[in-house]
Design goal:
Layout: H1 2-17, E1 24-27, E2 33-40, E3 44-50, E4 53-58, E5 68-74, E6 78-79, H2 83-90, E7 102-112, E8 117-126, E9 129-144, E10 150-161, E11 174-188
Antiparallel strand pairs: 1-4, 1-11, 2-3, 2-11, 3-6, 4-5, 5-7, 7-8, 8-9, 9-10, 10-11
Amino acid sequence: MKIRSCLFGAVIASMLAIPCLAAGYKVDPVHSALTFRVKHMNTSYAYGRFDTISGTFAIDEANPAKSSFDFTVKTESVNTGNAGRDKHLAADAFFNAKQFPTISFKSKSVSSAGKNTFEVVGDLTLHGVTRPITVMIELTGTGKDMRGTAIAGIESVFTIKRSDFGMKQMLNAVGDDVKIMLASEGIQSK
């Protein structure tokens, strides 16, 4: 009994010594979403999403500065549930998907902001304009998928001004503040 207790204690101690999520994760597009919310005519909110998202992330809880986040979405994959509006948003007046086919975020620095929460400073490129932004990213969980591969989930909610990225059309009808919600599940890279 004493030997079992010692072995159990050694296993637990070794598990605690290994930093969680030191490996990198590839975004699983089936279990990830980038959604947004914007005010319409200063009354109700209109919601949308981008259907095509890719990227990678790595979280090193022992040394958050070694963590990284890199996401890309295809601009033309904008989806608000209305084909006419989606076509309008993808056109020149808004996202201009032909000239700017992707939207991206790449982290520059990461620091701990509490348990399972990280302050991430990075560059957001939207509509051909790159600006630094700071977002909070939460580690929402870890586990294994149906094949036994390690997976991890993250979430971030933040607000940008679309006019900061040169998207100034129809500001009287479509709000300037855009709330962005990212939920992503990553599959451990091999």
